[in-house]
Design brief:
globular
Length: about 350
């Protein structure tokens, strides 16, 4: 592996270590031994429930992508959808503002024979549905616990409001790109002309011909979605289930640790709102930002929330990213073995 490919994972690992250190220092009574004791006190059903939620987060995104692929006439096996999701989650975690997730998924989809234009439409629409589901789950959380916003501190309020604005703008922008393809194509042409003027693009004519081909495919692909509302709704349901699954992680762990559901609804609402705010700062995996918001909000439910924050974040992010990395590695190794057998 080339050296530059280690930059993202190493940067993420350093951020994680620093964040865990900072979070653990938020409690005067926190100790590693105390955390292990807290972990040991959680019944097996709580840990299994958190694990199921984490796996559901990976699985449901994959199913949402496959629903849109079927709408475009490119059905694929369920495990390919899981790999698309794993690529998105893993590379989103190691790149600022999740910039690497969509391209990584796109590479796998194109490699599976799905045309570039179709892949672009599918990923854009899925991103729109993901943003919509974030806002919907936050809305459900507010219905469950109307005082959700007030429990956060002033800096957290800024992050949450900024997160809501960014998600609404992104949702509107993506819908324009998908359902008004002329805007998307104009942007593509603009970048092509800009690249030519700056002399950073070679073979301009060849690229222009390729763009014309993509333009025809994109129009056809985007147009097909207008007649596939059922699949879009199916994908939205999967995206909604994905967000609900990951949002339930702290609620499940809390219910297991205290032996009841009292306060679990508040945690669900706090987690949902904090998740929106966590995406407002371009940090890989929202590490640090998310932890600050979760810790800030959890304090409204329990006096010392550090153990719960560290454990729920471990399931919903750290372990999840490792599982996705393992799935991608297994797929790569399986592909290499298959190629050797075919030779």
């Amino acid at each position: 592996m080339k050296k530059h490919k280690w930059v993202g994972p190493v940067a993420l690992a350093l951020l994680v270590l620093v964040t865990i250190y900072v979070v653990s220092r938020q409690s005067a009574t926190f100790t590693a031994e105390g955390f292990l004791e807290y972990l040991a006190g959680i019944p097996a059903w709580g840990l299994l429930g958190a694990t199921a939620c984490m796996l559901g987060y990976i699985f449901f995104e994959g199913m949402g992508l496959l629903a849109l692929c079927r709408a475009m006439g490119y059905p694929r096996h369920w495990y390919r959808g899981v790999l698309y999701s794993a690529a998105d989650i893993y590379f989103s975690a190691i790149t600022p503002s999740a910039t690497g997730g969509q391209p990584a998924s796109a590479l796998l989809m194109v490699g599976d024979g799905i045309p570039t234009a179709v892949t672009t439409v599918v990923l854009l629409l899925n991103l729109a549905l993901y943003n919509l589901s974030l806002l919907v789950v936050m809305g459900v959380g507010i219905v469950i616990y109307p005082q959700t916003f007030s429990v956060f501190s002033a800096p957290a309020h800024v992050l949450i409001v900024l997160g809501v604005v960014l998600h609404v703008v992104l949702l509107a922008g993506i819908c324009l790109l998908v359902f008004h393809e002329k805007i998307f194509l104009r942007i593509m042409n603009l970048f092509l002309r800009l690249g030519q003027k700056l002399r950073i693009l070679k073979n301009a004519e060849a690229r222009r011909e390729k763009l014309l081909k993509i333009e025809a495919d994109y129009k056809q692909s985007a147009g097909a979605l207008h007649r596939k509302v059922r699949y879009i709704l199916e994908s939205f349901v999967y995206n909604l289930l994905q967000r609900v699954a990951v949002t339930l992680v702290p609620a499940v762990l809390y219910a297991a640790s205290v032996g009841g559901m009292h306060g679990a609804g508040k945690l669900f609402a706090i987690q949902a709102m904090a998740a929106v705010g966590a995406n407002s700062v371009p940090v890989p995996g929202a590490v640090g930002v998310a932890d600050y918001l979760y810790l800030d909000g959890y304090g409204a439910v329990m006096a010392d929330p550090v153990n719960l924050e560290l454990l729920s974040r471990a399931f919903s992010f750290y372990i999840c990213v490792l599982v996705c990395a393992a799935l991608l590695l297994a797929a790569i190794l399986t592909q290499k073995v298959s190629r050797k057998c075919d030779q």
